[in-house]
Amino acid sequence: MTIKRGTGELDPGAARTPAEFVALLRRLKERSGLTYRQLEQKAAERGDVLARSTVADVLRREALPRAELVTALVRACGAEGDASLWLAARERLASASDSEREGAASVGPAGSDGSEGPDGFEGAEGSAGPAGSTGPAEATGAAHAAESMTSAGSPDARKPSGRHTDDAGSRTRTASLAAVASLSTVALLVIGALVLFPEDGNPPATGDTGDRGPTVTAGRSGASEAAGAWQTPEAATSPDAGPARPGPAPGLSRIRPVRASGLCLTDGQVRAESGESKVVAVQRPCGEAVPPETHLLKADDGTYRIQWDHPVEDTGCLTVLDDGAFRNMLEPWNNCAAPGRSQLFRIERAEGGDGWRLRPEQRDGMCVGIRGDADELGAVAVVEPCANTRASSAVSSRQVFLIGPG
Question: Does the entry feature the keyword Repeat, yes or no (predicted)?
Answer without folding.
Answer: no
